[in-house]
Amino acid sequence: MDIGFKIKELRVAKGLTQEELADRAELSKGFISQLERDLTSPSISTLEDILLCLGISVADFFTEDVDEQIVFGYDDYFEKVDPELKNKIEWVVPSAQKDMMEPVRLTLEAGGSTYQDLPHEGEEFGYVLKGRVTIHLGKNKHDAQAGESFYYISEKRHYITSDKGAEIIWVSAPPSF
Prior knowledge:
Blueprint: H1 3-13, H2 18-25, H3 29-36, H4 44-54, H5 58-62, E1 78-82, E2 87-91, E3 102-108, E4 112-113, E5 123-137, E6 140-145, E7 149-153, E8 158-162, E9 166-173
Antiparallel strand pairs: 1-2, 2-3, 3-9, 4-8, 5-6, 5-7, 5-8, 5-9
């Protein structure tokens, strides 16, 4: 295991400089620099102090990363059909609700709609795969057809409709579906 590289990754992820980490762990900046370049090795107690400052346990530090799923297929998706609104939402990245953004595939039947979402913090992006949609954003309406995309800040009441049916990829950040 490359201890120095892993410590540097954790330090950078926490937004700390070498000097800040050194101050918190009561070490010198030079020691942290040498450690990150694998020019020196810490004692167990020094490593424990550094990891405490980085908010990770020794056990978690030495646990090898589990391969996380990167590619998702139809068997991974889950869907929700709303016959009243004539739509189907497919979560194409099942674990995305805990992440920073949430992509879904939305299929609208003719006359279909999403529910009217109240203003909230975040941004939304969509790409129209098939058909034509109308994005209702506050009092304004915007049309987009296959091959076009849309983007807006979610600060107004918003929803999407389609007169003849459509399919879009829709990404919300943070997750809101």
